Amino acid sequence: MSVGEAVVRIEGRDKVTGAARYAGDIPVAGFAYGWVVQSTIARGRVSSVDDGEALARPGVLAVLHHGNAPRLGEADDATLLVLQDPRVPHLGWPVALVVATTAEEAREAAATLRIEYQVESHDAAFRAEHPRMYVPDHINPTYETETVKGDVDGALATAEVVVDATYTTPAQHNNPMEPHAAVAEWHDGRLTVHDSSQGAYAVKQALTRLFSLQPDAVRVVSEHVGGGFGNKGTARPHVVLAALGAAAVDRPVRVVLTRPQLYALTGYRTPIVQRVRLGAHRDGRLVALDHLASSQTSKVLEFTEQTALISRSMYASGALRTRHRVVALDVPTPRWMRAPGESPGSFALESAIDELAIACGVDPVELRIANEPESEPASGLPFSSRNLVACLREGARRFGWSGRDPRPALRRDGRWWRGTGVAAATYPARSNPSSASVTAEDDGRFTVRVTAADIGTGARTALTQVAADALQVPMSEVTVLIADSDFGPASVAGGSSGTASWSWAVVAACRDLLAQGAAAGTTAQANTGKAVAARPDLARHAYGAHFVEVAVDPHTGEVRVPRMLGAFAVGRIVNPLTARSQLIGGMTMGLSIALLEESTMDTRFGDFVNHDLANYHVAANADIQSIEAVFVDDPDDQLNPVGVKGLGEIGIVGATAALANAVWHATGVRHRDLPIRPDRVLNATYAV
Amino acid sequence: MTSQRIGVSTVRLVVNDEPHELEVDNRMSLLDLLRERLGATGTKKGCDHGQCGACTVLLGGRRVNSCLILAVAASGASVTTIEGVGDGTELHPLQRAFLEHDGYQCGYCTPGQICSAIAMIEEAAAGWPSAVSADVGAAKVSLDGEEIRERMSGNLCRCGAYVNIVAAIADVAGGRA
Ligand code: FES
Ligand code: FES
Predict the structure, then answer these.
(1) B120 plus B144 within the same structural domain
(2) Which of B97, B114, B107, B118 is nearest to B46 (CA)?
(3) What is this model's ipTM?
(4) pLDDT tens digits, residue range A95-117?
(5) Does the keyword Iron apply (chain A) (predicted)?
(6) Which of A97, A344, B130, B135 is the S-S candidate for A64 at Cβ 3.0 to 4.6 Å?
(7) Distance (Å) from CA B53 to ligand 1 centroid
């Protein structure tokens, strides 16, 4: 058995020697450099583009803008319809692409462009009370906007204990270490693209429509991807710009976005205001849960973060209501960022649950256990498995939770006030239709092809383990090729669905090959579309529990995190080495958004002002001390053949609430606004 | 360093023990020279502003952000990139430790982390103190977790592999400290 073994990443050697090539590293012969020029206004029209000086500069091959760029066809996603019309829907919208033989020439030429605008007044100021806040048709991706069960207002009116609190989370940017890059090449009407993408097939589909091509005329390859966290989940404008540029100058064109350009062009997490109302008996058992989330979208594309989704599945409550509102502003389009919905949603819900535990005088671990549902609260569906209690118990045991004094602001250690906190986590265990093939080679080895993406998840290695077991051979006999859209349709590396989806198709293809006799030269193919659709309706979720210790210095506002421990029920663990890394990575990002991350909108200009890594703070090495992730047994045969639930997001869910709950325990001050910045800690009023 | 063409200079560099002489655009960074002119794409660009450490290389044995150095200003220097840290066939001990401890996920920050760690271990051995060193006068710094975290904080890892990066470096530095 390979599944369950700790295996060093297959591409590890390439990554530690620099041999691994990412999209911006691909040496396509004779390529030119595309430099993206962004609008400097938040709303209006481009009235003229003077490219005379740019075109006269050495090395400049073309200046594309709405007046001369090749025409695009259709797009499901209007953020991809770049250089097609003079409208400017937000600051940073692409208004031109300069193509030159070197990056230096392209960049300097771009600085000489004279672009005139007709400026219109804009509105980039998000607030929950915005008069244009509306009820969207659905929330991301296709969930119902509202759910109601029972009489929430009635139950709240008569509840013995009520928590009614508002929580805010700021805009956050994914900031994968690799800025988005693509190199596009046209050859006899066929388009080949190397793109930094979490889903080569999805990008291929988008480009096929945009350029009105036959499906077999587009190939997208994303062999190595430098992180994404949702930010590369679907096609982004850079890849369209590269293809447009290449069409215009008749040679390959590479477009690499700068770090600041990512902020307006590739997505971010919307700012969110959440109001959570809990009604409970004095012993902490819920009678009402009301969760209302308000967020923003752009005028280009409606994206409503599914923030209150978590409250539909987490705790038993006779009355339960979840609602979403959204307002379309003159701002860049928010998109997926690691655990869209559950990351901010869990901050509000799991903070409120902690407030309830304090109000009831019940231990927060026990209060959560007392509110375990028999079936999924909003839908009534049975759970395929639910091991949240095991996560809470095992986490508490390992962390040393028992005997914790619940009273706040008691533990002084020099200038540090210490405290501990807990929060629960859940994330949907999705499996999406995918296809894969496996070939028995003449030398006795096997080659698997699947349009998976390995954005750092370890997918390539996990799929090799899965294939080896399905073929009943050692891993060394199997080569898994991924991230090439020519391998057929496959799920995106997103929504924690990647390995669950791809492994299903890989197992099906391998079993089919064995059933056919696996003669040399034969290939078996599988598509799991029907099998995925045929699964019974069940509530399928992963679970986790975070335990955090903080040290707070109220005199400097500094919050340190000596210890984080997460216990997770995430189905079958294919590769414990990389699974642990992915969970710790999620927890690390959770700490980062709890304490540091915040994209600040200057509403006068419609610009995220702190658009680089010096001003948008992500956790650095010194911010992280001990972080550990452990697994609890979580067998589930209602998922997919391998029994995996996905690991990409669950580590971040609940992490911020656990940390905020620990800060309350340390100081007696409740932080309902993220991030818990030094000034917020410093300006708090302390009881002592 | 002079050239007949305006805006262009001749640069002589030794990169991973190989001498190079090339005409470069004066606006070109050392990072872009490595990546675009020499095809040494192991060194990554995460920000181009000295804010992330992905472009870390060894310049005369010391770690630098190669995006902050103009190629013309590095003329005459000797540069070691991730492609040159092993001895050709054998991996550098830090490269091995990163594999064993899974000190990376997407791998994009990894070349910078490894180059940075190589120089950092030398700095500590030479007694350079850091902000967390208890004794700034010590002849040699013992690299415990806190020292490693502090000294490696110029290399961001958005995948959040810090815990494993520190374990990998401690494994190697333990033998040296
Ligand atoms: S690319 Fe040089 S420090 Fe980020
Ligand atoms: S491994 Fe992805 S940024 Fe460090």
Answers:
(1) yes
(2) B107
(3) 0.98
(4) 999 999 999 999 999 999 999 99
(5) no
(6) A97
(7) 5
